[in-house]
Design goal:
This protein has five helices and 15 strands. The protein is an alpha+beta fold and 327 residues long. The termini are far apart. It binds zinc ion (2 copies).
């Protein structure tokens, strides 16, 4: 399907800054009319064939730049339950990248040029959001140590406790990315999303963005979410015994029950940059603005950027150190 403007026939898209549909050609607000697709991967605007990989659900025509949604890929089993609409537009996402990287002396000049940044595309990434309950049980020995002095003698008193903990934890919307295109570790860096902003899915939100349907089912993606919930439950259990001087666990059991799995689309800006025959990707969380990615460096040194430049600094220092030590 495509959303066309009643006034001018242009492609109406979802505007993250305004939080509603806008025609970028005549500036009309909510002037869209839905034109259904006929199942053919052909542009409804210019007739050109669309390049749609196996998992694409919304694509951009390479010839006329219109955004098309592939009706049959957001239908039935592939109909998302939730969508987290973009809150950060392309302009703001570019500005954030520019602000973050402008002082990196090793980045090639063209990396932050307006022309290359304008190629950035917003994508909706498929996720499963799991609701789970965990029955947590922990048993072990806790000690409490008290030390005091009297005269020249130091006394130590150790008390031993048999500690029992039982609790039930409810997990809501534990995410697991079900995307073919976006690496798991990048999506982990994009978190956290604020799930309070989830909306019931409507195709209007997809207009103006690329979209992907899930490549893994709720069952196949569940282990990652279970692992995270289990880790969280364990650390919650450990917090409950933190008042003891020491705690030696004898038994720890987490019984996880899956209550629900919802298919959701989450927003990411992706900036692809080619430098010296290699592709570099930077990502901006489309809701919170958090950034992650690889920075192409004019030095032969590449590292993962995960929110701070500590690593970068460290790598450069090490490089300097290596150079010196080889002199
Ligand atoms: Zn218009
Ligand atoms: Zn076209």
């Amino acid at each position: 399907m495509i959303f066309k403007c009643r006034n001018c026939g242009g492609n109406v898209v979802y505007d993250p800054e305004l939080g509603r549909m806008r025609c970028p050609y005549c500036d009309g607000a909510d002037t869209q009319e839905r034109e259904a697709g006929d199942g053919q991967p052909v542009c409804k605007n210019c007739g050109a064939p669309l390049e749609a990989g196996e998992f694409a659900s919304a694509v951009k025509c390479a010839y006329c730049g219109q955004y098309m949604i592939l009706d049959e890929r957001i239908r039935d089993a592939y109909l998302p339950r939730f969508i987290l609409p973009f809150r950060i537009g392309k302009k703001e996402a570019s500005e954030r990248l520019q602000g973050e990287f402008k002082n990196r002396i090793f980045a090639p000049d063209s990396f932050l040029s307006e022309a290359t940044l304008s190629r950035m595309e917003g994508s909706y990434v498929p996720f499963w959001l799991y609701d789970m309950s965990a029955d947590c049980h922990s048993e072990g020995t806790g000690t409490r140590v008290r030390v005091w002095r009297s005269g020249n003698t130091e006394y130590t008193e150790t008390s031993w406790f048999h500690v029992l903990r039982d609790m039930e934890v409810q997990f809501e919307k534990v995410p697991a990315d079900a995307s073919e295109q976006f690496p798991d570790e990048i999506m982990d860096l994009m978190e956290p999303y604020e799930y309070g902003g989830l909306q019931d899915f409507a195709p209007e939100y997809l207009s103006g963005f690329l979209g992907e349907r899930y490549s893994g089912t709720a069952e196949t993606c569940a282990p990652r979410a279970r692992e995270r919930a289990e880790e969280d439950a364990k650390s919650l259990l450990r917090e409950t015994v933190s008042a003891y001087t020491s705690f030696i666990p004898a038994r720890e059991e987490i019984g996880l029950k899956m209550r629900d799995a919802g298919y959701a689309l989450l927003p990411v800006w992706r900036y692809q940059y080619r430098y010296r025959d290699r592709d570099y990707d930077c990502y901006v969380n489309g809701q919170t603005g958090k950034m992650a990615g690889e920075l192409p460096l004019s030095l032969p040194c590449v590292l993962l950027y995960g929110g701070t430049f500590f690593l970068c600094l460290l790598a450069v220092l090490m490089l300097v150190w290596l150079c010196i030590s080889f002199l």
